[in-house]
Amino acid sequence: MGVYCTHMANQIPSSKMIHSETMGHSFWLDASSRKLMSAPTFVEGNTPDFDNALFVEDWEGDPLEVEQVNELVNIYYRLVHRL
User: Fold this and answer.
1) pTM: predicted TM-score of the whole model, two decimal places
2) DSSP letters of the chain?
3) Domain of 29, in residue numbers
């Protein structure tokens, strides 16, 4: 996934991306599937780490808190309305 996302990084306009301080990730919609993508956001420069990008549906680990789920829903809504 990292090579694909690094290649795609130059094709994702910043206007199509949301950086969430709450989540510590950057989010955008995959161009072909329209699925929600994410990558950790570097503190320096506020840029995504595309080498560690993945679909949100593939996240593993601890369950999300209610506030985090609300944040994801709001981010997805905002991105869909930017199309």
Assistant:
1) 0.84
2) -HHHHHHHGGGS-GGGEEEETTTTEEEEE-TTT--EEEEEBPTTTS-B-GGG-EEGGG--SSPPPHHHHHHHHHHHHHHHTT-
3) 2-80
Q: Determine the Cα–Cα distance for residues 24 and 20; give it in Å rounded to an integer.
A: 6
For the chain, the domain total comes to 1
**Which tokens go with 39?**
């990558």
- Centroid of chain to Cα 51: 12
How far, CA to CA in Å, does 65 sit from each of 8, 19, 60?
Answer: 30, 18, 14
Q: What pLDDT, on a 0 to 100 scale, did the predictor assign at position 73? A: 96
- 81's tokens: 């309305």
